[in-house]
Design goal:
With 304 residues, the protein is α/β, with parallel strands linked by helices. The chain has two domains: 219 residues, P-loop containing nucleotide triphosphate hydrolases (Rossmann fold); 59 residues, 2-Layer Sandwich (Alpha-Beta Plaits). The chain has a six-stranded mixed β-sheet, sandwiched between helices. The structure holds adenosine-5'-triphosphate (ATP).
């Protein structure tokens, strides 16, 4: 019962077709109050399509879509959300302050212009024309516009693309403040560290279905393999026979190794070749996680 009170939006068995292509293939997704959900997946996985159904911008061909228990096109439901999409068309001649005033006027309990500008780090840009701002500044203004209506559910589609490190950190701080206030947030991102820094829950989509759901750590554990790269004269054929090495190959002057027990391999490697240099050790990135999950799920095979 408590669970159902906390659900702010949901997709149940949602199907969306574009001609012969199934962009969503029976997708189930629930969004809860105060929770940041990172919606991840490779290009074309269906993330934007899922968001556009929840926003009422597109209709599902089958299944159920609810926003605050209502149809997503219901104006009362729409007044409770904020949106920052990848592309937005804003009147170029208006100043940032005018855009904020105009947007806030659509909402019943909007934040003040100063508070919105402050949270998004655009207080010094209020009198500037939107069109004359840099790409990163425009993204921050779009964030201010998304939060000015005091939304209970906020959609952020790759919000930090084009932002410098300081702007990204500020946006992360504002996002944390919003969730602490109870706002639910759906974040799509191609940066694993962004999901890691912010998300309580991660859903990975692939070909319009949920491939995996859980914490970021659980997601990483799907792909425990660590990549080790170095310059060494050791023979790759011999290395591939070592226990704890799942792959050994030569990459130009470098050797590339995959291992689920990198500490053991590193100790042995440094002992075996004292001249070893340019050592790099890194965990799997999102792209590798997606590839692995897609392979595990057998979606590629089915689609072929
Ligand atoms: N308006 C449309 N007409 C035809 N096909 C579409 C349309 N919108 C999306 N698609 C297709 O639906 C699938 C899902 O697209 P979607 O944009 O939802 O993916 P995504 O996960 O958001 O990808 P990205 O990471 O590239 O933003 C893709 O194969 C895409 O080509």
């Amino acid at each position: 019962m408590i669970q159902s009170v906390a659900v702010v939006a949901s997709l149940s068995g949602a199907v969306k077709r574009y001609g012969a292509l199934k962009a969503l293939d029976g997708l189930d997704l629930m969004l809860h109050r105060g929770e940041l959900l990172a919606l991840l997946g490779p290009n074309g996985a269906g993330k934007s399509t899922a968001i556009s159904l929840l926003l009422g911008l597109a209709r599902a061909d089958a299944g159920k879509v609810e926003l605050f228990g209502r149809d997503p096109q219901d104006i009362e439901a729409r007044r409770r959300i904020g949106v920052m999409l990848q592309s937005s068309f804003l009147p170029p001649t208006l100043t940032v302050g005018e855009l904020l005033r105009l947007t806030a006027s659509y909402y019943p309990a909007s934040r003040s212009i100063d508070e919105s500008a402050d949270m998004a780090g655009v207080a010094d840009l209020l009198s500037r024309r939107y069109a004359a701002l840099s790409g990163g500044q425009q993204r921050r203004v779009q964030f201010a516009l998304a939060l000015c209506g005091r939304p209970e559910l906020l959609f952020l589609d790759e919000p930090t693309v084009g932002m410098d490190i300081e702007a990204r950190q500020k946006l992360w701080a504002a996002i944390r403040r919003l969730t602490a206030e109870g706002c639910a947030i759906v974040l799509t991102t191609h940066y694993l560290e962004e999901a890691e820094a912010l998300a309580q829950r991660v859903v990975v989509l692939g070909k319009g279905r949920v491939l995996s759901e859980g914490s970021v750590d659980a997601l990483r554990s799907h792909v425990a393999t660590t990549r080790i790269r170095c310059i060494s004269d050791l023979d790759v054929a011999a290395l591939s026979q070592w226990s704890d090495i799942s792959l050994a190959e030569r990459d130009g002057t470098h050797i590339l190794l995959h291992s689920d027990a990198p500490e053991k391999v590193l100790r042995r490697l440094l002992d075996a070749d004292p001249a070893l240099s340019e050592l790099e050790v890194r965990r799997a990135g999102l792209a590798e996680v997606f590839t692995e999950l897609t392979r595990e799920s057998g979606i590629e095979k089915e689609a072929a």
